[in-house]
Amino acid sequence: MTLRGLPILVVLGLAAGLAGCAQPSFPPPRVVATIAPPKPPPPVMPYGGYPELQIAEQRDDGTYVTPNFDMTDAAAVWHLRGALNVAALACDKAGGGVLDGYNAWIKAHSGALDSAVKTYLADWEQTGWWDWRQAYEANMTRLYNFYSNSTMRVAFCAAARVEMSRVATVADKDLPGFARASLVRLDQPFIDFYTAFDAWRDYYAPKVAAPRFVPTIPEPAPSPATSADATAPATTADAVAPPDPTSNESAAARP
User: Fold this and answer.
1) pTM of the model
2) Cα separations (Å) of 156 from 188, 190, 191?
3) Which end of the chain is more exposed for a tag (fewer CB within 10 A), N or C?
4) Closest by alpha carbon to 74, among 21, 11, 116?
5) Residue 185: which of 160, 167, 205 has the closest Cα?
6) What is the pLDDT along the chain (255 residues), one digit of tens a residue?
7) How far, in whole angstroms, is CA 229 from its chain's centroid?
8) Euclidean distance between CA atoms 242 and 253, whole angstroms
9) Where are the domains of the chain?
10) What CA–CA distance (Å, rounded) separates 112 from 120?
11) What is the DSSP string of the chain?
């Protein structure tokens, strides 16, 4: 028997072959092992640091307190002069390149620097503090000590050399604005150190908030009044007498 000229067995064989192709079988997918990414290395103590080191205070916004915070124009100019003065005295053994430029700068711009320090002193005097002069000198000592820190000496001197080359070309009228930006750059080596030190300290000794105070001994409850106290009528001594219209107290109480 044929089906349109083909034997039935051939047709059935073709159908079985097509059925087998319609449902191919694939091997199961290979299992690929996943490896967790390595953890970053722990922070390293910055050069010159040690566990008990006290660094500048960190504000809530993450910035650090330095002597160059919230300055007037005169303060910025005079603080820049102080920072570069420290660099001129301290950087000879850390690359030099500051002393000659500093001497030339203060000579060429002596008028602007004198005006800045006079205005700065007047600002301190206007505080009205009886010891304003001592407060000013203490502030300048803090400034000099800040920039004299030997731990950041090399990085500070490198920044000071750059600022010394820049300030030599700044006109007197532009000096306040330049001084503010320059002090930010001069402070950066110290900020970098503080940031690295805090990262190290927080990793090995994280800050822990103080526990909330919870009293362990309850306050004694007031003793209940006895029935005799609660029901006893007011005596003559307990009664409130009407105010005396001739006394000062009753006159003051009246509207």
Assistant:
1) 0.67
2) 8, 8, 11
3) C
4) 116
5) 160
6) 444 554 544 444 545 554 555 566 777 777 777 788 888 888 899 988 888 888 988 888 889 999 998 899 999 999 999 999 999 999 987 677 899 999 999 999 999 999 999 999 999 999 999 999 999 999 999 999 999 999 999 999 999 999 999 999 999 999 999 999 999 999 999 999 999 999 999 898 766 555 666 666 666 666 665 544 544 444 444 444 444 444 444 333 333
7) 62
8) 12
9) 73-204
10) 12
11) -EETTEEHHHHHHHHHHHHHHHS---PPPPP----PPPPPPPP-PPTT--TT---PPBPTTS-B--S-SS--HHHHHHHHHHHHHHHHHH-GGGT--SHHHHHHHHHHTHHHHHHHHHHHHHHHHTT--TTHHHHHHHHHHHHHHHHT-GGGHHHHHHHHHHHHHHHTT--GGGHHHHHHHHHHHHHHHHHHHHHHHHHHHHHHS---PPPPP--SSPPPPPPPPPHHHHHPPP-TTTSPPPP-TTSHHHHHH--
Question: What sign does the dihedral 105-153-143-46 (CA atoms) show?
Answer: positive
| Residue bearing tokens 């300055």 | 71
* Contacts with 33 (C-beta within 8 Å, 6 or more apart), sequence order: none
Which residues, 6 or more positions from 148, have their beta carbon under 8 angstroms from its beta carbon? 86, 90
